[in-house]
Amino acid sequence: MSLSASLPLLLAALLIEAAIGYPARLFAWIGHPVTWIGALIGWLDRRLNRESMSFAMRRMAGVVALLILLGLALVASVALVALCRLAEPLALLPLALLASSLLAQRSLYEHVARVAEGLGQGGLAGGRKAVAMIVGRDPESLDEAGVARAAIESLSENFSDGIVAPAFWLGLGGLPGGALYKAINTADSMIGHKSPRHLAFGWAAARLDDLVNLPASRLTALLLIAAAALDRQADAGGAWRAVRRDASRHRSPNAGWPEAAMAGALGLRLAGPRVYGAVRVEDGWMGDGRAEATAADIRRALALYRRACLLLWGLAAIGSAAALAI
């Protein structure tokens, strides 16, 4: 798919998803692309990842599973593009509706906003209940400031891999590009961790996810810095300094970029040591502000996020106009 087709598709998908999200009734009826991909990954995990195999064989099995996943995602998405093109000249609408399911602007905002509401209405217990829906760490280990930081960190990281990254690959490769990215990212979230079962089997998914998220994480940081420049309550200079100083200190090669930008923009400290299950994970601090984040800081982060989304729409619009003019 050429840029003159993929960039208008991206813009339309961003606008549709922001307006209607993914309807709950549709999810109840047919599920979601992520649930379909997840079901396939789970099946491949059960079939190919056997404890009796050597470490090297399990790593190779993970590579095979990833290739099968990507092959099926590519075939399905190319078939859907061909089917939608039968509706020319109105093919953009069904394609954009399909592509919008790969983005999460609306749902991310709603989930993070619920944490601020939970803290405001239910105190620590309400905040812990809400934040447990969006983070993997043990909510019982978090105080109110920890709940607020976790929500802001999740907003920052998921803005990158739930919105900017699929948007980047949609803009570059159309629906197949977005579908391939979503398959990789879902595989990483399911099997790309360092548990005994998935250390070898999920190695390929984790490494490929790091690679495909690299451009988007940097772009996300720039969007947040630019958004901070348009927000009187944010500090664009602080965001820039935090990214330059702290992004590389994060244990993830990509998550540090948006988290450092958000931390610097809001005058906070994010990341740092965290507890997942019973395991304490040591990590570098992003930003040099206060660690005592509040529900008000979550709302400030959401305001910055909205501006950054608008800037992303602007980039898609400018790119669409330029591609169509060529």
Commentary on this structure:
With 326 residues, this protein is mainly α. The chain has one domain (3-325). Helix content is 72%, strand content 3%. It has eleven helices and four strands. The strands form two sheets. Strands 1-4 form a two-stranded antiparallel sheet. Strands 2-3 form a two-stranded antiparallel sheet. Helix 1 (3-20) packs across helix 7 and helix 6 (105-131) packs antiparallel against helix 11.
Net shape:
globular
Count every helix, treating DSSP H or I runs of 4 or more residues as helices.
11
The portion of residues forming beta strands comes to: under 5%
Query: Would you list the SSEs in sequence order as H and E?
Result: HHHHHHHHHHEEEEH
**Helical content, roughly?**
over 70%
Overall structural domain count:
1
**Most strands sheet:** 2 strands, antiparallel
Strand order in the sheet with the most strands: 1-4
Mean pLDDT: 94
First and last CA, distance: 15 Å
Number of strands: 4
- Poorly predicted spans: none
Radius of gyration: 20 Å
Structural class: mainly alpha
Short account of what is shown:
The longest helix is centred in the middle third of the chain and has 48 residues, at 144-191.
List the keywords.
72% helix; globular; transmembrane helix; cobalamin biosynthesis; mainly alpha; Cobalamin biosynthesis protein CobD; cell membrane; 326 residues; two-stranded antiparallel sheet; 4 strands; 11 helices
